[in-house]
Design goal:
Largest sheet: 6 strands, antiparallel
Shape: flat
Distance between the termini: 73 Å
Number of helices: 4
Strand content: 25-35%
CATH class of the largest domain: Alpha Beta
Number of strands: 15
CATH architecture of the largest domain: 2-Layer Sandwich
CATH superfamily of the largest domain: K Homology domain, type 1
Order of helices and strands: EEEEEEEEEEEEEHHEEHH
Radius of gyration: 21 Å
Helix content: 25-40%
CATH topology of the largest domain: Ribosomal Protein S8, Chain: A, domain 1
């Protein structure tokens, strides 16, 4: 059991508890990180534990009368009220269906309570949250998601130098990616999934290969279009 100083004045997150002696101690396996007065264990497992404030990506599993059930890859599903979208009213409900992907923030989480999500910020604005249309959803380990979000894994930046695309990486290990066409989107998803097992120099080489495949596919499609016009 590792100790990390006095718990007084610290916000204790996942995997950290207050010891009877007043110290903050790690009670789960993983890397302990302290940021802005908050101490938590960053586990490398695929099971996500929701925390208030996290930006997450999930798939809608059930649509109820006033809310959606969203799968975040956690032990239980999260609830996303229909009114928690920008501009949503009882007459103007979001056009989200079962199977769709959403980018949301965790507004309520904790042991013994239902996780709740919102697709707006504290001012009621979308702020990048909402319905993620089309694209592909893939899973990566939680530590890999952290590396992608922090830029420690350069694959997104390198791919973006050649291939125009959009991507959202959730703290819950879900990644949504959308490229210029179906083939490019699938190529991007494969490259991102493969990159999480590689060192930065290998990621650079992977991104170059993916860019080359994209350019070759684009040239082949252009030739096919020319043949059809002829």
């Amino acid at each position: 059991m590792e100790r990390y100083g006095p718990a007084e004045g610290k916000k204790l997150g996942y995997g950290v508890a207050r010891h009877p002696g007043g110290e903050a101690v790690a009670v789960a396996c993983g890397r302990v990180a302290a940021r802005r007065g908050r101490v938590a264990v960053e586990a490398s497992t695929r099971r996500y534990v929701p925390e208030t404030g996290h930006a997450v990506v999930g798939a809608v599993r059930v649509r109820h009368g006033e809310s959606f059930e969203v799968d975040l890859g956690a032990a239980g599903v999260a609830s996303l009220p229909m009114m928690n979208f920008q501009g949503a009213t009882r007459r103007n409900r979001p056009s989200v269906e079962v199977g769709d992907v959403v980018h949301a923030r965790v507004t309520r989480a904790g042991r013994g309570m239902e996780t709740e999500l919102s697709c707006v910020d504290a001012q009621g604005q979308s702020a990048g949250f909402g319905h993620l249309k089309q694209g592909l959803l893939l899973r990566v380990p939680l530590d890999a998601a952290r590396a992608l979000r922090a830029g420690q894994n350069p694959v997104l930046a390198r791919l973006g130098e050649t291939i125009p695309f959009s991507a959202v990486v959730g703290a819950n290990g879900r990644v949504w990616v959308h490229g210029p066409n179906h083939a490019a989107t699938a190529l991007l998803a494969r490259a991102i999934a493969a990159s999480v097992r590689l060192a930065p120099p290998q990621v650079e080489a992977l991104a170059r290969r993916a860019a080359g495949e994209h350019l070759i596919a684009g040239a082949s499609q252009a030739d096919a279009d020319d043949d059809m016009e002829a």
